[in-house]
Amino acid sequence: GVPFEVVPGVTSGVAAPAYAGVAVTHRDDASAVALVTGHEDPTKPESVLDWEALAAFPGTLVLYMGVGRLAQIADRLVASGRSAEEPVAVVERGTLPRQRTVSGRLSDIARRVEEARVRAPAITVVGPVARLREEIAWFERRPLFGLTVAVTRARAQASGLSSRLRALGAEVIEAPAIRIAPRPSGVGEIAAAAGRIGEYALVCVTSPNGAELLLEALAAAGRDARALAGITVAAIGPGTARALSARGVNADVVPERSIAEALVEALADVEVEGRKVLVARAAEARDLIPDALSERGARVEVLALYDTVPEALGPETLTALAAADYVTFTASSTVDHLTRALAAAGAPFPAGARVVSIGPVTSATVRERGLEVAVEADRHDIDGLLDALLADVRELPPP
Questions:
Q1: Which residue in 68, 261, 304, 348 is a FRET match for 238, CA 20 to 30 A apart?
Q2: pLDDT value at position 323?
């Protein structure tokens, strides 16, 4: 009595070969395709497949399952008249980041598959089109194909980085070590600051999360981006500037490096003596920006918009982390909370994994936790992190 819906999709017999660079039909090689089960019901007294008809079929054969019976299948096709030199491609885990393709001919494909230890799920393609992958294989040529990358940033932010890594071919493990928690205890303070936003000569925003929550606070106070007109707005880096821009605010001061030291330097020519300055940030953060501005005579108010709290990681995630080739850290808090979670579970940091850090402050925390930084981004944002990761992969020896 449960209502249901059937959503049609692309069959794996077409999708997996396509991801391996094999078109099951091609104007030069095959005008027809036959989809065949390679693993019949074992309760049947005998095979119902017409092997002579399949051997004589003028097109591509696509076999579902049947990896364990590939030797018998190849023998039956050859014995029934199919050429032993017919090209074959076996696609394991098609469309997934760990996809593998083994190529050969009917005469040797079973041996090649066994040597490669191919396991189900797998699709077998028999026919001249199997040669096409030499020219049009694309999925397995992406720069991060075959690599597993762990993303430790907050779940609400992880999807953007994860999707870009997947588009580059990586298998992604989302291990959100932190969670961004708006501060209920500071609602009154936040509302008051938002209500008097026009009193500030300078507003410094130190993270994309801060940008989002500051504009939400303005909205709750009945204000919007227009309330910042005439106020100098400083963003700690390009990522924060983009977050502000997405909400209608163009930052006036944006250093190239997304670190507090760079923002302090970028503000050197901004007049702050005797003026009110608002620093919108996380509750736990370095005091370098407010201290530097206070030393220049500014009347600084720190507005703690959110807490960075640890996120519980389940045993499945901790187990999956062991397979990581790279672990990315986008803030010191992600380093602290991931290493603590691993220690609490009695699990070591992934052996052999290369640590990718978004910048020098995060790198310092990595080293404080006894880990080695393999890659540090020159530009301290997600684009810079991805560029640094790709550059490191290009330097790795071939597998």
A1: 304
A2: 94
Stated as kind and residue range, the H or E segment containing 54 is helix 51-56
Contact 255, 234 (CB under 8 A): no
For residue 34, the surrounding DSSP H or E stretch is strand 33-37
Lowest mean pLDDT among 84-88, 182-186, 366-370: 182-186
Report residue 373 as tokens. Answer: 């930084």
Percent of the chain at pLDDT exceeding 70: 97
The single residue listed with the structure tokens 């696609």 is: 91
**Confidence (pLDDT) at 44:** 66
Rounded Cα distance, 115 and 322, in Å: 26
Question: Which residues of the chain form beta strands (DSSP E)?
Answer: 33-37, 60-64, 87-92, 100-105, 122-126, 148-151, 171-174, 178-182, 202-205, 232-235, 276-282, 299-310, 326-329, 354-357, 373-376
CB burial of residue 98 (10 Å; 0-12, 13-18, 19+): exposed
Contact 190, 117 (CB under 8 A): no
Instruction: Please name every residue paired with 281 in a beta bridge, in sequence order, or none if there are none.
Output: 304
AA letter at 184: P
Which residues touch 148 (CB under 8 Å, ≥6 apart)?
97, 170, 171, 172, 173, 323, 324, 325, 326
Contact 64, 15 (CB under 8 A): no
Phi and psi at 195, nearest 5°, equal -70, -30
Query: Within 13 Å, how many C-alpha atoms sit on residue 240's CB side?
Result: 30
Per-residue model confidence as pLDDT tens digits over 21-56 = 999 999 889 999 999 988 766 666 667 789 999 999
Q: Which pTM was predicted? A: 0.81
pLDDT of residue 185: 63
Helix (H, G, I), strand (E, B) or coil at 61: strand
Rounded CA-CA distance 116/387 in Å is 33
In sequence order, what are the residues at sequence separation of 6 or more whose Cβ sits closer than 8 angstroms to the Cβ of residue 297? 272, 273, 274
CA atoms of 106 and 82, how far apart (whole Å) = 9
Q: Check if the beta carbon of residue 121 is closer than 8 Å to that of residue 92.
A: yes
CA-wise closest residue to 37 among 97, 120, 148, 144: 120
Q: Which residue has the tokens 């104007």?
A: 27
Dig out the tokens for 272 from the structure.
């702050």
Judge whether 335 and 329 are in contact, CB under 8 Å: yes
Domains of the chain by start residue, with CATH: 12-140 (3.30.950.10), 148-177+311-395 (3.40.50.10090), 181-309 (3.40.50.10090)
- Rounded distance between C-alpha atoms, residue 58 and residue 45, angstroms: 29
